[in-house]
User: Fold this.
Amino acid sequence: MMHMTFYWGRDVTLLFDSWKTDSWFSYSLTLIACLLFSVFYQYMEDRRLRFKLLSSSAVSNNADGAVDTTPLLKTKIFARGNRLGRVAGSVLFGINSALGYFLMLAIMSFNGGVFVAIVVGLAVGYLLFRSGDEEQVIAVDNPCACA
Assistant:
């Protein structure tokens, strides 16, 4: 039976029927995996935002290096050479969305240790990868967890 309230214990089934913990050792490895997975999520989100910032600044620059004065009329976005950048950005978005949903489903196991490990991992990942250069990344950052 699935728990519908938070519980503290070493017996947890996480994401798959085959991922069950029955000892303190396997539970500890699961918590470490959750922590590392959430740190990796923050790393990938930082890469995605920096790629988006880089591609948007590359689009708004003209060939001679001058900044485009009409940012709403970006005709280069539909140019043939930028399709690869758009596809790569879409792939990164898909990876980040999948990671975010896996983390959400792991928290929905309602195990207190899994919850704490994921929240601590997200905080550590934010500290390591996303807490610097706020003025550059804030333009493309979205607070929505699924965006």
About this structure: The chain is about 60% helix and 5% strand. Residues 8 and 113 are 7 Å apart (CA to CA). The chain has one domain: 12-60+74-137.
